[in-house]
Design goal:
The protein is mainly beta. The chain contains 6 helices and 45 strands. Strands 1, 3, 4, 7, 8, 9, 11, 12, 15 and 16 form a 10-stranded antiparallel beta sheet that branches. Strands 2-5-6-10-14-13 form a 6-stranded mixed beta sheet, with no helix packed on it. β43 and β44 form a beta hairpin. The longest helix is centred in the first third of the chain and has 10 residues, at 2-11. Mean pLDDT is 77; it is low at 1-38, 602-608, 627-633 and 650-658.
């Protein structure tokens, strides 16, 4: 390819044709029945809404084929797949709708028929780094519309491309087309392989594409959006107005592109050749009607037109668009419609029979007659001359006092002018003056309110006015304004701007504005700060929860309105609120499980001997939080009644039931750590917790909670808890709430359904014992107890 290009560039400046069939520009191996990939990785894409471009990062060291697929717009489904080792360096690759490749001009360059049947949306494949692929990558682009009648084997299918080469000079591109043997059809898409990035477009040609010339161009490879942003078409020159059959016609201009189309009298021009961005040409067809027509050029939505007169084969008479009255009598010609007309204008010379020598000035000859007429004296022909006959251009002039009537720099009748015009800013606005009043005054008199009274009348020519302005006292004018007054009455002001705190009799400015000292006291101002002479005395906060003090970095402000002890961990006080949140829950213990001694490798510094309880002496909650407790543990180490709020209601969030959660109440408790509400063990059809608990299969447990109106709540509030929520309920000591209305200790020692299915076998779901924490799986057809949460 490099040798082919070097030879090409040596002979042509902008464009050439080259038969490079044997040059390895593309992978020319024919396709098999399908394209085989290594393990494929579909890449996530990033969409740019402004350009419609979708992009993804291609790794040079990936071990699998990386595929980028367009998911929106007219090129949806277009794809590019890079096998391992295809790129030498990582690069972001983008897919977008391209500028048209299969234009009549481009197809003419390639030696193809410029009248193709149909085309698909062009696809642009660009890399952010300038490189060729080391090995071919696979491209998938849309097929042309399938509704077109095609040959059975699709032999007329072709893909036209405009690609870049990393070895080529800047702005160079290769235009070409794939033979049918290099293409694989897959559904409504066509696939091929290449090593170069660029624009690709599938077409149905009028004949099979079995031999193609490659063309080297000086052009840019653009997406459709980029092409739309280029400067508009402009025509600056053209061939002659009159053309005949077979004549070459050339347009000259700027910003010509391959998308340029021409039409003669609304008929498209075939075999248009856009030679460069400044020249385009075609051969005039023989199918035009004789006469004046219009050549319309269109490119990317911009249209322009130029006139053209087609003579066809009519060359025996002259052609003119003038009417017969402007053509000499007897002269035959073709008009703009091709009709033969005859001129009617009398073009013969005037009658000179009365012309004599005495009627012509001396030295003048007309139609062979020599003039003998002598004027005496001669006509005046210059300014200021005397002894000549005055004429229209040089009439007589009175020179007495003439200089005072003529402008300086002008001479009339030999007299130099002495009048000097005033400048426009010295003449009242709206007043015309000067030669022929071509000048207009611009002077505007001030308003009387803006003129000092000491100036008396002002103005000119009877337009004098009485001034009304009285100057202020110097002590009322800011010193920064400098002197004020007019006409030698300038005064130095004496009023200064405020430049310090608590100053009086000065002008307030930015940095020293006025201050209302009646609205604050020293206690409202921070210490070390003085405002309007008031030194701050506000006390800084020095202890947690102090009110009415000046906050500091160590004691900032805190919002305590909605803060309770349950928002703060036990043992911590914040802004005067003592923490009550206990989350490090531990089980109650019994001396039966007491452990005294040491354990090798464990950081157990609190182990004691004898009957004392320590951190290892724990047991599950199956005894329902018995009175056995570790006396040296703080409340924050144990969950129990303080963790649970009595939320028992009769109407779904309203009034507490009398006596709280008793044997006849519809019991609800709230976990103050997680804010989760919990029903009692369901009985009586899943609506109450009173009576004998009811067992449910897993599916029934799910739907029962979902449709439950337990506690007065509407349908959709309750749901079956997850496995982790059940485990948290155990960990936070739900068993401490055992009661006749909520659930007896015996019943709480049972397994309860969770909404969590087993990952290894979805026919099973997880269950949890709320007294021991045991959490196994069970088949979903089994029947177990149910509590609901929300």
């Amino acid at each position: 390819m490099a040798l082919c290009r070097n030879k090409l560039l040596a002979g042509l400046a902008t464009l050439a044709l080259l038969n490079c069939a044997k040059v390895p520009l593309f992978n020319r191996a024919p396709f098999k029945s399908s394209i085989r990939y290594a393990a494929r990785e579909a890449l996530p894409t990033k969409l740019d809404p402004a350009t419609g471009q979708e992009s993804a990062k291609i790794s040079a060291v990936a071990k699998s084929t990386q595929e980028l697929v367009a998911s929106s717009g007219p090129i949806t489904g277009a794809a590019v797949a890079f096998p391992p080792g295809a790129l030498a360096a990582d690069s972001t690759v983008a897919l977008a709708e391209a500028a048209t490749v299969a234009s009549p001009s481009n197809l003419t360059r390639l030696g193809l028929s410029d009248e193709f049947i149909s085309s698909a949306s062009p696809v642009s494949i660009q890399s952010e780094t300038k490189q060729n692929a080391l090995i071919p990558f696979t491209v998938t682009i849309p097929m042309p519309p399938s509704s077109v009648a095609l040959d059975a084997n699709g032999l007329n299918l072709s893909v036209v491309y405009l690609t870049t080469d990393s070895d080529a000079a800047a702005g160079q591109a290769t235009l070409g087309a794939f033979e049918r043997s290099k293409l694989t059809v897959s559904g409504d898409k066509v696939q091929f392989q290449t090593r170069n990035f660029g624009n690709f477009q599938a077409i149905w040609a009028k004949k099979p594409t079995d031999q193609v010339n490659y063309v080297l161009l000086t052009t840019a490879v653009l997406t459709k959006v980029q092409a739309a942003l280029l400067p508009s078409l402009r025509i600056t020159g053209r061939s002659a107005l009159v053309v005949g059959t077979g004549n070459g016609f050339e347009l000259v201009g700027t910003n010509f592109r391959p998308t340029l189309t021409l039409a003669l009298a609304d008929t498209p021009v075939n075999k248009l050749l856009v030679a460069s961005d400044t020249k385009a040409s075609f051969v005039v067809p023989n199918a035009l009607n004789f006469g004046l027509t219009t050549l319309t050029a269109e490119q990317d939505g911009t249209k322009t037109a130029v006139p053209l007169f087609f003579t066809g084969s009519k060359t025996d008479l002259p052609i003119s668009t003038k009417p017969a009255a402007e053509i000499c009598a007897g002269e035959r010609y073709y008009d703009a419609n091709g009709d033969i007309l005859t001129g009617t204008r009398i073009c013969a010379g005037p009658d000179l029979s009365a012309l004599t020598a005495g009627r012509l000035a001396l030295g003048t000859t007309v139609a062979g007659v020599i003039g003998t007429l002598v004027s005496s004296p001669a006509d005046c022909i210059a300014d200021g001359k005397i002894g000549c006959v005055s004429t229209t251009n040089y009439p007589a002039a009175k020179v007495t006092g003439l200089d005072g009537k003529v402008l300086v720099g002008t001479t009339v009748a030999g007299i130099a002018g002495t009048i000097t015009l005033p400048p426009p800013n010295k003449v009242l606005s709206g007043t015309s003056f000067g030669n022929n009043a071509e000048l207009l005054g611009t002077l505007t008199l001030p308003d009387p309110n803006n003129v000092a009274t000491s100036n008396a009348d002002y103005g000119i020519g009877g337009t004098g006015s009485i001034p009304k302005l009285t100057l202020p006292l110097a002590e009322n004018v800011r010193a920064v304004n400098g002197t004020f007054g007019i006409g030698g009455n300038a005064t130095s002001p004496g009023l200064n701007d405020c430049a310090g705190d608590n100053l009086l009799g000065c002008v307030t400015v930015f940095g020293y504005p006025s201050a209302n000292t009646n609205q604050f006291t020293a206690a409202d101002i921070a210490p070390t700060v003085t405002i309007a002479g008031v030194a701050g005395q506000r006390v800084s906060c020095s202890a947690d929860g102090d009110p009415g003090c000046y906050t500091t970095s160590a004691f900032p402000s805190a919002a305590v309105t909605a803060t309770t002890g349950q928002n703060i961990r036990t043992g911590v006080t914040l802004a005067g609120v003592s923490g009550a949140l206990a989350t490090n829950c531990r089980n109650g213990i019994s001396s039966v499980y007491n452990f005294d001694g040491t354990s090798t490798g464990l950081p157990n510094t609190a182990v004691s001997t004898g009957a004392d309880y320590d951190v290892w002496d724990t047991v599950d909650d199956s005894n329902g939080f018995t009175a056995f407790a570790v006396t040296n543990w703080a409340d924050s180490t144990r969950c129990g009644s303080s963790t649970w709020s009595d939320a028992t209601t009769l109407d779904g969030g309203g009034t507490l039931a009398a006596g709280g959660c008793g044997s006849s109440s519809t019991c609800i408790y709230k976990d103050s750590i997680t804010n989760l509400l919990v029903t009692g063990i369901l009985s009586s059809g899943g609506t109450t917790s009173n009576g004998t608990p009811q067992s449910f299969a897993w599916n029934s447990a799910m739907t029962t909670c979902d449709s439950s109106t337990y506690g007065g709540y509407s349908v959709g509030n309750w749901r079956l808890p997850t496995q982790k929520e059940l485990m948290a309920l155990y960990a936070h000591g739900l068993v401490s709430r055992n009661s006749a209305g909520f659930g007896t200790l015996t019943n709480l020692r049972s397994q309860f359904w969770s909404a969590t299915s087993s990952a290894s076998n979805t026919a099973y779901a997880w269950t949890t014992n709320l007294a021991s924490g045991y959490t196994p799986t069970n088949t979903k057809t089994s029947t177990l107890y149910v509590i609901c949460v929300h």
